[in-house]
Design goal:
Layout: H1 2-41, E1 55-62, E2 67-75, E3 78-88, H2 98-105, H3 117-132
Antiparallel strand pairs: 1-2, 2-3
Length: about 140
């Protein structure tokens, strides 16, 4: 009798642990799906630097897992520099080098950093957001 009680408790514990793992896996999958949708929704429009006044502008972008705040310096209708003021991310820290490429190419049409594509897009959108504030 006592053995059956122990087996039952072990079985309940294993089933409970399995259900917990299943819930965590499903929750993670749903979170990644939502993150993917939020990143895709960040639409970077056509960049018209000829309409952007000289100045320093801040912009930001945020999804469920990644956020960025940047400072963009514009001079003579060209991007002179981009500084990351804040960047909250998981594994996307390598994407921060994208700001150098944006300034070098004077364009948002730059390649994403491999392994940090979500952060790359969030940073690019934050730069776009900043430049929209300088439109004349």
């Amino acid at each position: 009798m006592e053995r059956k009680g122990k087996r039952k408790k072990i079985r309940i514990a294993l089933i409970s642990a399995g259900l917990l793992v299943l819930c965590v896996v499903i929750g993670s999958m749903l979170a990644m799906k939502m993150e993917t949708e939020q990143v895709r929704a960040l639409t970077i429009g056509e960049l018209e630097l000829s309409q952007t006044a000289d100045g320093i502008y801040t912009g930001s972008a945020e999804t469920m897992l990644v956020s960025a705040k940047v400072e963009v310096s514009v001079e003579n209708h060209e991007i002179r520099s981009v500084k990351i003021l804040e960047h909250q991310t998981g594994k996307g820290k390598p994407a921060e080098v994208i700001v150098d490429e944006i300034a070098r190419q004077d364009s948002l049409d730059v390649d994403a950093v491999a392994g940090a594509t979500y952060s790359s897009k969030v940073i690019r959108y934050a730069v776009y957001d900043a430049l929209q504030k300088g439109k004349s």
